[in-house]
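Fig. S4 source data, part A: sequence.
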Amino acid sequence: MIETDHWFGPLITNIRLIKTDVPIDFRQEHPMLQVQPIPRVAYQEVTLNNYELVPELKQFTPEDWDDYYDTVVRPNAMVDRPRGLYAAAARKRRAAETGGPIDT
């Protein structure tokens, strides 16, 4: 993560080449590095420390157990689980919340 409010310049990364006896092709259509901006609020202490702990499982509510089942048990019990199932559901939830189209 690069801490910056603005950036103008190259991003430099190291690449370790482990084969010396074969040609290595670097292709423009296959990026080696991807940059994802993250809003500062996402990693501020106030955000990172905003959570609650449940010390004992008996303190889980029925809704907590339903969420656990939907998130952990059901997807892992599927015989033919489609790839990207969680991501597709997240896009649908976001579209429903914002009233916008589903991002692909």
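Fig. S4 source data, part B ends here. The two ends are 26 Å apart (CA to CA).
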